[in-house]
Amino acid sequence: MTENTKRELLELTRRLLDAIGCGDWETYQQLCAADLTCFEPESRNQLVEGLEFHRFYFELGGHLGKHVNTLCTPRVRMLGEDAALIAYVRLVQVTDAAGVPSTSRFEETRIWERKDGEWLHVHFHRAVGT
To answer: Over the stretch 12-59, which tens digit does the pLDDT of each residue have?
Structure first.
């Protein structure tokens, strides 16, 4: 894997997380495959396929208040020439409506696949860290 590919995948992942955080459905749709699959706490750890499940949360408007995502020790691994896995711990710092800060921790694995020269997010597994 080249350093450019690694940087590109990290940047795409950051764009994806920023879109999630601010409720930017258009960017999220552009970055994700229509048949995206996932396991996450919101799905009650059931496998979900497609984007409709996620649209519900976007329609709620994203995070309230200021928020910052920090990717801790991200690891990028190529799975052939056109697929890659990125694993990391994500720290999300937010302030509530009263300005009180808090930090949440998530363990995330995301899979990207290159289709027609463009990377698309095709699967993720997210768990709430303790």
So the answer is: 999 999 988 888 899 999 999 999 999 999 999 899 999 999 999 888
Give dist(CA 42, CA 1) in Å, integer: 33
Domains and CATH numbers, the chain: 3-128 (3.10.450.50)
Q: Using pLDDT thresholds of 50, 70 and 90, give the confidence band for residue 94.
A: confident
Alpha-carbon distance 99 to 62, whole Å? Answer: 17
Q: Is the pTM of this model over 0.90?
A: yes
* Cα separation, 85 vs 103, whole angstroms: 25
Q: What are phi and psi of 23, to 5 degrees?
A: 75, 30
